[in-house]
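Supplementary Methods, section 5.1.

A reviewer requested that the exact input to the structure prediction be made available. We therefore reproduce it here, unchanged from the version used in the analyses.
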Amino acid sequence: MKGYFIPAGPGEAEFTEKRSRFLGHVRPAASEEEARAFIDRMKKQYYDARHNCWCYRLKDGPERYSDDGEPQGSAGLPMLEVLRKAEVSNAVCVVTRYFGGVLLGTGGLLRAYTKSAGDALRAAGLAQVRPWVQAELSCPYGLFERLRQEIAAAGGAVEDLDYAADVTIRALVPEESLEGLARRVTELSGGGVALRPLGQVFKAAAV
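The structure derived from this sequence is encoded token-by-token as follows.
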């Protein structure tokens, strides 16, 4: 199955443009019901705002957006384009605007909503959902940081750590990088540490 990106967690961002206050929120959403529920929560929380614009994008599902009273095409669609360009699915974004009394114009609104959605997505971070090989290694503390860097360089992610006499690292590694990473672990440890594959999983890991 082909991999895809999702928000790694909740993300929030805020900025002011010509006295208008923009609050961006991004959340993971596995279904349309989940996305709609989050939008409703934001509308209730920011009931006194002039606009609560939103969009969501689901893997193998619909894409939806709303300008919520802003000029057509100036808010919801630019926000959705942020998710599209980042190739992010299963995500919902709401940008709340408290009007500051100064008109921004369509171009200004488009830039502001794009920035707010982008800032919130960056705050959330990304996780990649794809096939991974779960692997494990135990190493001396002196090698730990270097081996963690090698896992990251191979496109992998540390899943869990166990500190005892040695450090046991459980990691998710792209299948295509497994052989090369195993060689690097052997080289760096002088043959004293081996990377042990545990099996394949399909799950999200922060990138």
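The CA atoms of residues 127 and 207 lie 5 Å apart. These observations are discussed further in the main text.
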